[in-house]
Design brief:
Shape: elongated
Distance between the termini: 16 Å
Strand content: 15-25%
Largest sheet: 5 strands, parallel
CATH architecture of the largest domain: 3-Layer(aba) Sandwich
Structural class: alpha/beta
Number of helices: 8
Strand order of the largest sheet: 2-1-6-5-7
Helix content: 25-40%
CATH class of the largest domain: Alpha Beta
Radius of gyration: 22 Å
CATH superfamily of the largest domain: SPOUT methyltransferase, trefoil knot domain
Number of domains: 2
């Protein structure tokens, strides 16, 4: 799978892509991540990719023209054995649909994901309407740009690719509470010491009971979270 990221701050990804799981996955050739500077597709000498919004208002808006050129270029340069590679163009925006594990399972089936990171006051709405296949948000809050959402998408989807995570049972796990040594840990609360203990069931050695306890304490996806409406299928 190839991830193509379009951003005006490519260096933000330097540390993230060269450490831990994603670094190993790239070294093994399981995934390929390419970060592109949107300014490379600006037509003027100042490499301007934004402008004032029509109708007035604060801030600047990313223009459709350089984004269109970038997307078209990345589509044309994508090499695949498939005559018609499966690709998805994703724009990150707080107005998008919330990303879930169900989305990760759906998106991992594609050959190429082109991720557009917005900035400033937003992106020309024609990008969402005509260039992007879907618009995604990672939560009900506002970030400075789409770079962090892109990182979330990268890691979540990469974990589902065979070989990226060494232990199969760790690929997709909605955690139950975990404990390790010491069995008893004391902290001070005022003049008294309070003992923080491990649930006795985990010390019992009864694997069936432990499995039942973990199952009952595992966070489950709600039916609403499992649904993943999309704009269109490419």
């Amino acid at each position: 799978m190839i991830f193509d990221i379009i951003t005006i701050f490519p260096k933000i990804f330097d540390g993230f892509l060269t450490e831990s799981l994603l670094a190993r996955a790239q070294k093994k050739g399981l995934i390929k991540i390419r970060v592109h500077n949107l300014r490379d597709w600006a037509k003027n000498k100042h490499r301007t990719v934004d402008d004032k919004p029509f109708g007035g208002g604060p801030g600047m808006v990313l223009k459709i023209e350089p984004i269109y050129k970038a997307v078209q270029y990345l589509k044309s340069k994508f090499k695949s054995q498939n005559l018609k590679p499966r690709r998805r163009v994703i724009l990150f925006s707080p107005r998008g649909k919330k990303f879930t594990q169900a989305d990760a399972k759906r998106l991992v089936k594609y050959d190429q994901l082109i991720l557009i990171c917005g900035r400033y006051e937003g992106v020309d709405e024609r990008v969402a309407e005509f260039l992007a296949d879907e618009v995604i948000s990672i939560g009900d809050y506002v970030l400075s740009g789409g770079e962090i959402p892109a990182m979330v998408i990268l890691e979540t989807i990469s974990r589902l690719i065979p070989g990226v995570v060494s232990k199969k049972e760790s690929v997709e796990k909605f955690d139950f509470p975990q404990y390790t040594r010491p069995e008893v840990f004391e902290i001070k609360e005022g003049k008294k010491n309070k003992k923080l203990t491990v649930p006795k069931i985990l010390l019992s050695g009864n694997h069936q009971k432990i499995a039942e306890w973990r199952k009952s304490h595992t966070r489950q996806l709600t039916s609403k979270e499992q649904k993943s409406p999309v704009k269109k299928e490419g």
